[in-house]
Hints:
Helix 8 (182-194) runs parallel beside helix 9 (219-229) and helix 9 packs parallel to helix 10. The longest helix is centred in the last third of the chain and has 24 residues, at 357-380. The chain is 36% helix and 22% strand. It is of the alpha/beta class. It is built from 15 helices and 19 strands. The radius of gyration is 22 Å and the shape is globular. Bound molecules: iron/sulfur cluster. Iron/sulfur cluster binds at residues 161, 163, 165, 168, 170-171, 205-206, 241.
Amino acid sequence: MSTGEQRAITFYIHTFGCQMNQADSGIITTILRNEGYLSAASEEDAGIILLNTCAVRENAVDRIENYLQHLQGMKKRNKGLLVGVTGCIPQYRREEMFTVSPAIDFIAGPDTYRTLPALVEQAQRGARLAALDFNPAEMYEGIDPGRQGSTSAFVPVMRGCDNMCAFCVVPFTRGRERSHAFSSVIGEIRGLALSGCREITLLGQNVNSYLDPEEGRDFADLLAAAGHEAPDTRIRFTTSHPKDINERLVSTIAAHGNICNHIHLPVQSGSNAMLGLMNRGHSIEEYREKIGMIRSIIPGVAISTDIIAGFCRETEEDHTSTLRLLSDVRFDSAFMFFYSTRPGTLAARTLADDVPEALKKRRLQEIIDLQNDISAGIYRAEIGTVVEVLAESESRRSSSQLMGRTGTNRVVVFDREGHEPGDLVRVRITGATSATLTGEADLA
Length: 444
Ligand code: SF4
C-alpha cells in the first residue's frame, strides 16, 4: 500500500469537552473501524482528522477555530488529508461552519455518526457535506465502543435534555431526552466488570431523569442494579440536576459500598434572580436543602458544582450571593466560567449579554480565588489520613509515581511502590494543594 493510500484510510479523533463527547468518540471509532478505517497513532499519521467538539465550555469555539487554522496548514502539506468536525458545535452553527475554515470537508451532528463513512467517501470525491438531522430514535444501540479490557469506562444511559436552561445549547444540539433500555445498560455493565473494568461512569446530560423505556424503572433503580451487578467495580454518574435529585437516589448511593460518594450538582449561581433568568427550575433555598439532605444521608460525601459568573443582568448583589453560597456549602471543587452567549439558546434570543467583560472576569476571579481557598482547606484536612485510590496512569512528572482518584473524586499522586495502573491502592496522604493530594502507598 502506498503512503497516500495509507493516509486515506487512517483516522485520528481529537475530543473536546465533556465525558459524553469522549463516549461518542468511542462510538465514532467503532463506526469507522467497522467500515475498514484504521485508528492512527497521531494526527501526523492520519488521512482523516476529526474534531469532536463541545459547545458548552468557555472558549470551546475559539479553540476549535484555532485548531482548524493549524489543520489548514497541515492540509497544504498533506494533499488528500480530510478534516471533519463532529459534535455540538456544527449542530448549532450548522452550514455556517464551512465559512469558519476552508479546512473543513464535512460536518456531522451527534445523531448522525452512522453516516460518517458515507460522508468520508463523498468528501474523498471533493464534496463538502453536512449531516445534521436530529434523530430521536438514535441511541447507537448495537455499536460496541470497544472499551473491553480498559480500567475505566463511560456508559451513556441517556442522551439529550428536556430542560431549557437559558444559557445551554444541549437541548438544541443533542435533542430530546431518551434513555437506553435498563436491560442493555445492565448487560453492558456486567460485561465491562467481567472484562476487568474497575470503574464505570454512567453518563447522561441529566442522569436523574433516566427512565427505562421498557419497564419504567428510574435512575435510582438503575444505580442500585449497577452497584449489585458489578460489586468490585466503582460506579460513578454524572450529571445530576438539583431539581431532580431525591432522597431515594441518595439512599441508594449510601447503601452500596461501590457507588462513589461524589455528586456533581451544578448550581450555576447563588442568586434566585439569576436562577430564575437561567430557567433552572429551583430556588437557592431548595438547592441548600438538597445539599443538607445529601450530607445527612452520606456523611463525608464530596459535592462539586458548576458556576457561571456574569450571566445576563447579574448585579453585584447577585454575585455576592454566589460567593456566600460557596462559603456556606464548601464545595469540594467547581468548574467556573464567565458567561458568553451561545447562538440559538433561550438567553441568546431573550436576554441581553449586558455585563461588561472586565466585570465578568473580575467576578470570576473572585469566585476562583474563594473556591481555591475552600478546596485547599478540604484537601489539607486529608493529610495524615489513608484513602483508597484507583490508580489510573503514571503521573505526568515521574514514572515512579502514579496518579489516581479517591471514591470522592479527589486526584492523588503517590509513589508507586510496585503498583500498576488499575490497582486499588491504600495511600497515606502526606501533602495537598487546592487540586491534588500527594502521598505514599500504605504498606502497613
Ligand atoms: S440540565 Fe440545563 S445545563 Fe444541563 S444539559 Fe440540560 S439544559 Fe443544559
